[in-house]
Amino acid sequence: MGPGVRKKSKPGQTFYLLALSCILWLCLVTEISGTLQPTVCTKSRKVFNSSWGIITDGPSGSNYTQDSHCEWLIRAQNSSQVITLKFHTMSTECSYDYVFVYDGESFESPLIGSFSGKSQPQQITATSGAMLILLYSDTNYVLDGFRAEFFVTNCPNNCSDHGMCSLHKCYCQGTWGGRDCGLELCPEGCGKDSHRGECKMNRCHCAAGYSGQACSLHRADQTGNK
Ligand SMILES: *[C@@H]1O[C@H](CO)[C@@H](O)[C@H](O)[C@H]1NC(C)=O
Ligand SMILES: *[C@@H]1O[C@H](CO)[C@@H](O)[C@H](O)[C@H]1NC(C)=O
Ligand SMILES: *[C@@H]1O[C@H](CO)[C@@H](O)[C@H](O)[C@H]1NC(C)=O
Ligand SMILES: *[C@@H]1O[C@H](CO)[C@@H](O)[C@H](O)[C@H]1NC(C)=O
């Protein structure tokens, strides 16, 4: 009876292990395809509710199709969250083909970016809880398009690693300030070491003859004043 039981339980264990590794493998595959595969332009609207993703008109090196109209809508889980869009590449036909970005779910929402050409746009943020992105191209000439990454955070830019996020508000450390704690309020320590100024109440107070945000400009320094 003993060996029989063992024999019976062994295939069961094997099956269990096999099933487990299958599940793990499936999870891994869906995880990889879900996070690493960028969503391409298909002339329709793609909706995201994830906290991170990549959007692009297509693989790099391949041109977007003529006459494109593609939309990506990113929805935050909580409308108090901030959606940030960061461009990695940008190449559209200057002043004919555009990437439009709206702070909201529709084209009536505030337009927070309209980009065309080859200069890489600055990172932009939507605070309404949704961001709508439109790629529009005319019927001529096409180019490589764009590739951008989005992330959804509780606080703007996760407080730039210079502060604490609480109830969707940044509380900045030290001399960091601004909505996302990305602003150094006393740059270069206001030149304290070279007696140009001092940081007081998160502001530079410059010594006589010095001016500028970091007290780095001197009256006698012609190049600095130009
Ligand atoms: C996100 O979208 C997927 C697919 O549309 C849906 O199954 C899921 O419930 C959504 N998640 C949340 C948290 O809304
Ligand atoms: C993309 O379009 C440009 C200009 O229309 C063309 O010069 C280039 O060869 C195209 N690239 C590919 C991969 O089709
Ligand atoms: C923002 O912070 C959260 C919580 O610490 C973290 O899970 C997330 O990965 C961060 N996102 C970015 C884009 O840094
Ligand atoms: C969104 O965040 C706010 C502030 O943290 C919170 O009061 C509210 O319950 C959240 N809403 C949802 C739907 O989670």
TrEMBL record:
Signal peptide: 1-34
InterPro entries for this protein: CUB_dom (IPR000859), Sperma_CUB_dom_sf (IPR035914)
SMART domains in the cross-refs: CUB
Transmembrane segments: none
Disulfide bond listed as a keyword: yes
Domain CUB: 41-153
Any Pfam family the entry gives: CUB
Keywords per UniProt: Disulfide bond, Repeat, Signal
Name of the protein described by the UniProt record: CUB domain-containing protein
Species of the source: Periplaneta americana (American cockroach)
